[in-house]
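Hey L., structure's done. Input below.
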Amino acid sequence: MKDVIEDTLVRVGSFDKITAREVRLTMETYTNHDVRGMSPATYGPTERGITRARIVEVRNGVWAPIVDWFEIPISAPSEWRQPFTDSDLMIGAGQGMR
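Output:
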């Protein structure tokens, strides 16, 4: 998440311009985004998640893999993988954010 906020800040120019919508728009540019060497994450309007991963450890201050890549199924329900709209970011009574 730290990467997302930093990338959003670079994209929008100042902290006061960071909104949930801007964070989402930043995340939607990620294709095979490196998550500390553990998995390549993709987060787009219709594709979200990871399909492979590996276990890593910190060795001499560096993330280092300890096993080879393995495939993982996408476990999120299909409705969670639908395109977002700006109204999805509005949280009201009894309504959660996807």
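The CA atoms of residues 21 and 86 lie 7 Å apart. Helices lie at 2-12, 20-27.

-- N.
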